[in-house]
UniProtKB/TrEMBL annotation:
This protein's name: XK-related protein
InterPro entries: XK-rel, XK-related_adapter
Originating species: Carassius auratus (Goldfish)
Keyword entries, A-Z: Membrane, Transmembrane, Transmembrane helix
Family in the record: Belongs to the XK family.
Length: 469
């Protein structure tokens, strides 16, 4: 039987003719097959997972030979816990429990799930384009021209291979975040603390610390990119190399300064650092739930078809716990909305960003000053005032690179109605007017637009652009 399905160029010509005949249409809708890109993110996440696992195992063996039972036990714990969570995440995303795949499940039991998944992704990519496949769905995006959504909307056919690669990429993005903030962050903190306490550096320990730092920075980059993609889902977002460089400097300095501050503080006040960590954990864990209860919202539906209300609550608690662990180390780049299906508040709230970095800067300065006054005699041969200044300056540089990214390097910065410069200028002008006016002529605070109100206007403009596209 002859195949009557039109070819790609025929579909494009028909759509172009229809769009030209009807000027009310929003430009020309281009329909073609989406290009498959190599799964570099999958390969990189797998390399980081294996490298950290191998280095941590070798370091545990070294601890065993030197009878350091405590360091060995904690190192093994920070290997196995994120590894088990990674296997469960990959199994859950690919729905292996409902499929007859005993070999894959066996590999997951051996903690080698990321390796077999990476091989599967590479095989799928190598087979892409060899056999013509019918598309599964169509993805509609709006191209950004010079940072604005002025280009016509276009549609891409998503084939089976592209869909499988997308599933692999999304799964490894989740595992990269889990590995970074539930495994690499406590691992780096532990090894840095052990180095200071033992007063010498093992080569294996140094290698593990470097790999853990790279893993945490990569996880923070994934969080930032995912936040942009979720908030601007209708746009074709492309990150430039300068944006990645700025984000690496921002995230690297922020994480390194934060972990160093906590470790130094723990060497002087060991009990109090536990209290500081628990307070941070409880604040960020319960903050989304308090907002959820205040609004009297209901649990989101269709997170997973087979989940009951109890299962949905358990999943939300795990997501909130991961969210809290991320915010202890660095800015998570998103605000959770437990009533939304995507679990993310898509309004970019500058007030939350400003409050987080202001309070975090004050906390870091307080902790490092307390360490300076209660430090041990081990630091007699180190210029501690210079170290304090370096940590404060490095965190300040991280904040500066964050502002530079949002002002100049953000791929959707021209969709902002108010950017960093506008918010700073508005705040300065408001303070100047307040200082010039007498108290009886001071304007009502309600007459001034709050940052949240500015964000609402910004979001309305973005929504108008989406509807007009």
């Amino acid at each position: 039987m002859e195949n009557n399905k039109p070819k790609d160029h025929d579909i494009t010509e028909v759509v172009a003719q229809q769009s030209a005949a009807n000027p009310s249409e929003n430009g020309i809708v281009v329909i073609n097959h989406s290009k498959s890109h190599p799964p570099f993110s999958v390969l990189w996440a797998t390399v980081l997972f294996c490298a950290e696992f191998i280095c941590a195992s070798m370091l545990s063996r070294t601890y065993r030979k030197s009878d350091d039972v405590v360091w060995m036990g904690l190192t093994i714990t920070f290997i196995l816990v994120p590894s088990v969570l990674t296997q469960l995440t990959l199994t859950f995303v690919h729905r292996d429990l409902g499929r007859d795949r005993p070999f894959v499940l066996f590999m997951h039991l051996l903690q080698m799930g990321p390796i077999i998944r990476c091989i599967e992704a590479l095989v799928v990519y190598c087979q892409t384009g060899k056999n013509e496949e019918p598309y599964v769905t169509i993805s509609r995006k709006v191209k950004l021209k010079h940072g604005r959504g002025l280009g016509p909307a276009f549609e891409c056919e998503i084939g089976h291979s592209e869909r499988k690669l997308a599933i692999h990429r999304n799964a490894f993005k989740r595992t990269a975040i889990i590995q970074a903030f539930l495994g690499s962050t406590p691992q780096l903190t532990l090894q840095l603390y052990a180095t200071i306490q033992e007063k010498y550096v093992l080569p294996t320990r140094l290698a593990l610390m470097i790999i853990s730092m790279i893993s945490i920075t990569y996880g923070a980059l994934v969080c930032s990119v995912l936040a942009i993609q979720i908030k601007y889902d209708d746009y074709k977002v492309r990150m430039k190399p300068t944006a990645y460089l700025c984000m690496i400097l921002w995230r690297g300095l922020e994480i390194a300064t934060r972990i160093t501050t906590l470790v130094l503080f723990s060497t002087a006040l060991r009990v109090w650092v536990v209290l500081v960590g628990l307070i941070n954990l409880f604040i960020f864990f319960f903050q989304p739930w308090v907002e959820f209860w205040v609004r009297k919202a209901s649990l989101p539906e269709n997170i997973e078809k087979n989940f009951s209300k109890l299962g949905t609550t358990v999943v939300l608690c795990m997501v909130t716990f991961l969210y809290a662990c991320i915010n202890i180390s660095c800015w998570s780049a998103v605000q959770l909305d437990l009533a939304d299906h995507d679990l993310v508040d898509k309004q970019p709230r500058w007030r939350s960003l400003a409050v987080y970095y202001t309070l975090r800067f004050m906390e870091n300065v307080t902790l490092i000053i307390l360490w300076y006054f209660f430090k041990s005699d081990f630091y007699e041969y180190i210029c501690t005032p210079l170290l304090v200044v370096q940590l404060i300056v490095c965190y300040s540089l991280a904040v500066i690179f964050m502002l530079i990214f949002h002002q100049f390097c953000h791929p959707c910065r021209r969709l902002f109605h108010y950017n960093v410069e506008d918010c700073l200028r508005c705040a300065c002008c408001w303070k100047e007017k307040q200082s010039q006016l007498p108290e009886d002529l001071a304007p009502d605070p309600q007459e001034h637009a709050s940052p949240d109100h500015l964000i609402d206007q910004e979001t309305d403009i973005v929504d108008d652009n989406m509807e007009a596209a």
